[in-house]
TrEMBL record:
GO terms for biological process: tRNA pseudouridine synthesis. Its EC number is 5.4.99.12. Residues 8-101, 142-244 form the Pseudouridine synthase I TruA alpha/beta domain. It catalyses: uridine(38/39/40) in tRNA = pseudouridine(38/39/40) in tRNA. Substrate binds at residue 109. CDD domains: PseudoU_synth_EcTruA. This is tRNA pseudouridine synthase A.
């Protein structure tokens, strides 16, 4: 049978999602825990690979298994063998033609950014940081430049394996709660480092060091060398994929309630 799992994790201690020969990834930890619980070898496919240091609130994976367990047993049993910073949130049986990655109609990320003269301490690893004051109106204007279907080569890592740099960025929403900015990105799919490279550019404009026209030129150039440096991974959270309603998979998990600035809407 095929199972879909929803997974949350803090990515600080891991080398990203994708399994590596030396271990140390989220996929390695999950498959090891599933293998111990099911007493067999398990392989998983995820909805969206995350980089080293990037977190997830509802990463969706699928796996094929011939062991019969109740859904809640897959959650609690697997979590018994997972480290404290990774947890299965839900389990659901799905038809064999469901595919966690290929079946996703969209993906969502949130970037949390602390605007403060002082670096993060208690929240270290969970937030990005800028000591420069940001202007909300400039931030919104810069974000609007990027909406639509474009060739995002200027924001693409040299290690990106995507077949095409053309993606559809459907929405960038901006909220603020105190010193914490929350930017949410929703798109058809994302290139390697795309959100972090966009964040570097947005901060350049919002802090007054560049104009929105510069960002439009960067996008049109399709040249990574013209964009800002890749921003830190700390504040990036994979909120999860979007699927067709027929699958009836959860799009929200309890960790969403712990993420700062979930409801405070920024007024310009």
């Amino acid at each position: 049978m095929r199972l879909a799992l929803g997974l949350s994790y803090r990515g600080t201690a891991y080398k990203g999602w994708q399994s590596q020969p030396g271990g140390g990834t989220v996929q390695d930890a999950l498959e090891a825990a599933l293998g111990r619980f099911a007493a067999c070898e398990v392989r998983t496919v995820c909805a969206g690979r995350t980089d080293a240091g990037v977190h997830a609130l509802n990463q969706v994976v699928h796996l094929d298994i011939d062991r019969e367990r109740e859904n809640y047993s897959w959650v609690r049993g697997t979590n018994t063998f997972l480290p404290d910073d990774i947890a299965v949130q839900w389990c659901q049986r799905v038809p064999d033609h469901f595919h966690a990655r290929n079946g996703a109609r969209g993906r969502r990320y949130a970037y949390l950014l602390l605007e403060s003269p002082v670096r993060p301490a208690l929240e270290s690893g969970q937030l990005g940081w800028t000591f420069r004051p940001l202007d909300g109106a400039r931030l919104r204007a810069a974000a609007n430049v990027l909406i639509g279907e474009h060739d995002y080569s200027a924001f693409r890592s040299s290690e990106c394996q995507a077949l095409s740099p053309v993606k559809q960025l459907r929405e960038i929403s901006i909220r603020r709660q105190g010193a914490v900015w929350r930017l949410e990105f929703e798109g058809s799919a994302f290139l390697h480092h795309m959100v972090r490279n966009i964040m570097g550019c947005l901060i350049m404009v919002a802090s007054g060091r560049r104009e929105s026209a510069w960002l439009a030129d960067v996008l049109a150039s399709r040249d990574r060398k013209l964009a800002a440096p890749t921003f830190m991974p700390d504040g990036l959270h994979f909120l999860g994929p979007r699927y067709d309603a027929e699958w009836a998979l959860p799009e929200r998990t309890p960790p969403f309630d712990a993420l700062p600035a979930d409801t405070a809407v920024l007024a310009f």
